[in-house]
Every structure is written in structure tokens, then in C-alpha cells.
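Form 7-S
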Amino acid sequence: MLTIFLHLGNFQPAEVGNFQPAQTGEFSTGTDIRPIHHQLEHRADAHVLIAFLAYCLQVTLKNRLMIHASGLTPAAVLEKMATIQIVEVWIPMIDGRWLMLPRYTQPEKDVQAMLNKLAITLPCQPPPRIKSSQILPPSTKSAAEPPVLW
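Output:
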């Protein structure tokens, strides 16, 4: 059984198996940790690390919301942010190489207003890249078959 040590005030270490699963999808206390079932110790350690990092990000977002937009919840912000997606456009070139354009969608007006309120700016669009003919885009099967463009 894995033991987690959380230093949150008077909270004592506890075994993961004694925790109750979180019902709301967010951590309301330090004890809302789901049990993990991994056969290898390094996988359990990695699982705990990822869960802890996610918890740290959620607490950071919650604190930022308290400062900039006290009426919003982390779940509401993440739901709105999920509308921003990244796509990769692969364009074949005459010499057999591929021009790859990774792009994220521009946020809607309400999402942009939320980002402005939280003082968050999105990074610039990534630059285009040229890939060799040996590297195929994810949708093509082999080099012999030309990709279907439309």
C-alpha cells in the first residue's frame, strides 16, 4: 500500500486505500485522492507525481481566480479553455517534403474576455516546419499512396 505524506496544517499521513473518491471532479480537500492500482512501483510513483502536479496547477488556478475573478470556478475556466484546440495542417510540397503548420484556434469572444480578466495571454502561433518525405502525416498509411487532400 502506498503512503502519501501531505503537509497541510494538522493533516496526518494516510494510506491511499482509505481515501474516498472525489465526486466533483476537483480536489476540495487534501484527502479526495482516488486509489491507484499499478503493479510496478515506478508507475505508482509516476501516477502520484502527475496527480500532485495536476493538484498544484488546480490550486494555482483557484488562487488566481480568487484574485482576478472571484465568481469563476476552476472547472468553469477549464471547460471554457477546452474550446481552444490545436490542429496540424500538412501540405505536400512538389519535392516530396511536407509543410506542417501547427495552429491553435482563436478563442471565442467570451473565452478571450475570460483570459483578459485573468491576465493570461496565449503564445504566438508556432512557426511552420518542413518535414522530410520519410515522415508522413498521421492520416496517411504509406509513401506509395498519395494523401487524400479533399
